[in-house]
Amino acid sequence: MGNGFIGVIVCGAVAVLLLAVGLRDTAVVWRLRRHGLRTWGVVVDNVRVDRRDAGPSWAPVIAFADRRGHRVEFTTRMRGGGMGLATGRQVPVVYLAHDPQSARVAMWRHTVGPVLAVLFVGLVFGGTAVLIALTA
To answer: Residue 59: how many CB atoms within 10 A of its CB?
Structure first.
């Protein structure tokens, strides 16, 4: 077993995992667009999230009332430059009635952006696996 074979296996496995996560998120976004309840939420805080690979980032915490009147808080999935939301800002929210914790900010960059990012990285790993296989 050469290094090329191991590289193909590792890159291929990562690609399959990321593509599976991306497809699952695609289904969640589709369900939210099709069956989600829309409301308005307020950014109540921005919390520091420490990531080992990229250092700290800030994640907005959004609060909204679900259809039963319960307060629900969640953080956005997409973080980084240009993804921040100012504290006190009112934002559109979409969530599933049976699962308010599945809520997302109803903005393209917060619903479709994470899906595209995961699928893109999965395709990069898949392409890398193919390149390694062709050159080994």
So the answer is: 20
Tell me how far apart the alpha carbons of residues 51 and 54 are, in angstroms, rounded to a whole number. Answer: 6
pTM of the model: 0.73
Which of 17, 29, 22 lies closest to 110 in space, CA to CA?
A: 29
Helix, coil or strand: residue 136? coil
Contacts of 24 (CB under 8 A, 6+ apart): none
Query: For residues 101, 102, 104 and 109, what is the CA-based torsion angle, rounded to 10 degrees?
Result: 140
C-alpha 117/C-alpha 60 separation (Å) is 19
pLDDT per residue over 93-118, tens digit each? Answer: 999 999 898 899 988 878 888 889 89
Give the 3-state secondary structure of 2-58: CHHHHHHHHHHHHHHHHHHHHHHHHHHHHHHHHHCEEEEEEEEEEEEEEECCCEEEE
DSSP 93: E
Q: Which of 126, 134, 121, 104 is nearest to 53 (CA)?
A: 121
